[in-house]
Amino acid sequence: MKVVGFIGPSGTGKSHRANWVAKERGIEFIIDDGLLIRGNRIVAGQSAKREVTKIGSIKRALFTQDSHAFDVKRTISMYKPEAILILGTSEGMVESIARRLDFPPVTEKVYIHEVASEFEIKQAISTRKEQGKHVIPVPTFEIKKDFSGYFLDPLQIFRRKGKGSYQLIGEKSVVRPTFSYLGRYTISDYTVYQIIEYVTSNIEGVSRISRFRAENHPDGIYIEMDLVLVYGYPIKGLLREVQQRVCEEVERLTALNIKRLNLVAKSLVVNNATGDGS
Which residues, in sequence order, are bridge partners of residue 227? Predict the structure, then answer.
């Protein structure tokens, strides 16, 4: 297996250009910040950007945990790629990752200044410092479950086709990690409630929400709801439909994972001919 290193200081735009560098060399697999990426899909690993401290992030990126390294090595042995691209902030980091994952020696090294202009590098560093944003070279939907509870900002990449005409060529995912000095983004409970209220109001058999509670946890959002249902509908099946539709819509609209949605049928109403509950 050929091993290529893609090297540049933190925040200079390596992840943003990783797919381009790999594609130019016919490389299908990328190691970036603890993840093994094949094309536009994460196939193994755990992202260093989920760690709560900078030290934890560095350790994760270097695969210091045996179970983490084993997961990636096992997947590599299954796919048997001809080449792999490793992203790192220095030659030593790239070589250390290769050794840790039992790869052959790094035989080619690409540096960020070879694929990005000085202006582009400065712009990337400025974005990192001022906004605390990090790019992962996969579409947003691929990393949503790895970043439950954190802000995801799809970054669309366009290519100019002609005057006033652009072609969409890809999408990246921008994440603010928890160790960023600018803190973390969350979506307010009331916003989540409004989405859920709208979804449930369109489900036949549900009258209203009588109690709502949402809590953000590192692994996702936990929700408890009491519902007032309409008499005459099968309760168990109706509650399962509410769970399914609420989870789908909240995850689609907010990129948050609902890890638990507890529903209680608190009471029933009987609809009369005019549609008023009694």
Answer: 209, 265
Mark whether 115 and 215 lie in a shared domain: no
CB 91 within 8 A of CB 7: yes
Per the CB < 8 A criterion, the answer to whether 150 and 175 are in contact is: yes
Q: Per the domain annotation, does 195 fall within a domain?
A: yes
* Residues 55-105: tens digit of each pLDDT: 888 899 999 999 999 999 999 999 999 999 999 999 999 999 999 999 999
Distance CA 146, CA 138 (A): 12
Q: Tell me if the pTM is above 0.70.
A: no
Residue 207 lies in a domain: yes
Both 125 and 197 in one domain: the answer is no
Structure tokens at 217: 């946890």
**What's the CA gap between 27 and 19, in Å, rounded?**
9
Domain that holds residue 221: 189-269
Both tokens of residue 66? Answer: 């045996």
Residues 121 and 10 in one domain: yes
Q: Tell me, yes or no, whether 44 lies in a domain.
A: yes
Cα 113 to its chain centre, rounded Å, is 28
Cα dihedral sign, 191-193-196-201: negative
Beta-strand (E) ranges in the chain? 2-7, 29-32, 35-38, 41-45, 83-88, 108-111, 134-136, 152-162, 165-175, 206-217, 220-230, 258-269
**Does residue 206 share a domain with residue 111?**
no
Domain presence at residue 183: no
Question: In this predicted model, what pLDDT tens digit does every residue of 129-143 receive, in sequence order?
Answer: 665 555 555 554 445
For residues 61 and 97, what is the distance between their CA atoms, to the nearest angstrom?
8
At which of 95, 113, 131 does a domain end?
131
